[in-house]
Write a structure and sequence with these properties.
D-Maltodextrin-Binding Protein, domain 2; alpha/beta; about 375 residues; 2 domains
Length: about 375
């Protein structure tokens, strides 16, 4: 799965759309048609889930549908701007949506979501405290955590060992003396916020630093390294890593997991590993929210509660390599994933992770101008 996640200066929104109807509310003809021609069970009940593609395990879907005697109808989006634009255009019928970080804040400000009744979520006590009461939704008034990923460095383990390159620092993508050995074999994310975040971290600043002098320093660092990069790539680096066209990629932890799985399935003579740089990295927490006009509210709560359960969160980690928000899920997660510090950072490493926040208008204008300079030079 490729998470084009983004962090596009304040537009983060993912939607888990579920449409499982409550017994007292029969599905309407229009709702059935909007259920993407899914075959409904005899009960006629469905819940609509608006989500990133391949961001829920088939086994989870099967277990949920059996438990609720309903159909889980899924729609997909590829980035947050797409989701926000669809909602702004008046899209309805969604029950549960999955925004990341500050997109929760955006949706709350736009009055697109409704408050969460925590008394209806018996599994909420399984969620790790690290993912509750975060800055974008104090006291989790509107959101419930779903999963998380980290933006880091993915690499061809055998090739990097052969070249003798260090992988524990953002120096690998910014320092010419290292990049000389990777000329044309490295990609960075085609994302203003993500690439600036990596540069700012390497320079010792916060990922949300909007100071003009610091952003210009980050721009200069990026421009110095740019001649060595093969491309700005936010969509196909999984494939490029998998087939060996590139040896290093700046991207999401769950994408690196997928690249390694694909390489193994294809019998490649190398493995794809990942490293969380010592300077820190970006943390993205995905959350479930309920649309303000959710037509199937009872089943929306059933879905959310089901998806934060220890087994469902483990199935998500096993499928995608995303981190689990459930404190009890480790017993169900594959050992190789549990042991991957890029997926499950230890307590000390976790302190070095930062979430992207929206820039102010002034900061955004500056960042946009500097990004244009980077892309055209």
């Amino acid at each position: 799965m490729t998470f084009l996640r983004y962090f596009l200066t304040g537009f983060f929104c993912v939607s888990l759309l579920t449409a499982c109807d409550a017994p007292s509310t029969p599905a309407t003809d229009s709702a059935e048609k909007s259920a993407t021609n899914e075959t409904l069970p005899p009960s006629g009940r469905f819940v609509r889930f608006y989500n990133w593609n391949n961001y829920i395990a088939d086994t989870t879907v099967e277990r949920f549908e059996k438990s609720c005697n309903c159909r889980l109808v899924q729609d997909y989006f590829s980035d947050h701007e797409e989701m926000l634009a669809k909602l702004a255009a008046g899209a309805t019928g969604y029950d549960v949506m999955v925004p990341t970080g500050n997109v929760v804040e955006t949706l709350v400000a736009q009055k697109m979501v409704q408050p969460i009744d925590k008394s209806r979520l018996k599994n909420l006590n399984q969620v790790k405290s690290d993912f509750l009461n975060l800055w974008y939704d104090p006291n989790n008034q509107y959101s419930v955590p779903y999963g998380y990923s980290v933006t880091l460095i993915g690499y061809n383990a055998e090739k990097i060992k052969e070249l003798g390159l260090p992988v524990d620092s953002w120096a690998l993508i910014f320092e010419p003396e290292l990049l000389e050995k990777l000329q044309g074999k490295i990609t960075v994310m085609d994302s203003q916020r993500e690439l600036f975040a990596a540069a700012l971290l390497y320079l010792g600043y916060s990922v949300n630093d909007g100071d003009e002098a610091h952003l210009k320093e980050a721009r200069d660092l990026i421009l110095r390294a740019k001649p060595y990069w093969a491309a700005f790539n936010a969509s196909s680096y999984i494939k490029e890593l998998t087939i060996g066209n590139i040896w290093v990629a700046h991207g999401y932890s769950n994408d690196m997991f997928q690249a390694d799985q694909d390489a193994k399935a294809a019998g490649r003579p190398f493995t794809i590993a990942s490293s969380l740089p010592k300077e820190g990295a970006v943390l993205a927490v995905d959350n479930m929210v309920i649309h303000k006009n959710a037509p199937h509210l009872d089943l929306a709560y059933q879905l959310i509660d089901f998806l934060i359960d220890k087994q469902s969160t483990a199935e998500l980690s096993n499928l995608t390599g995303s981190g689990s928000i459930n404190a009890l899920s480790l017993q169900y997660i594959d050992q190789n994933i549990k042991d991957n510090k890029a997926v499950f950072p230890d307590a000390e490493t976790f302190k070095r992770l930062q979430m992207l926040k929206d820039y102010s208008r002034k900061e955004r204008r500056l960042a946009n101008r500097l990004w244009t300079e980077i892309k055209v030079k």
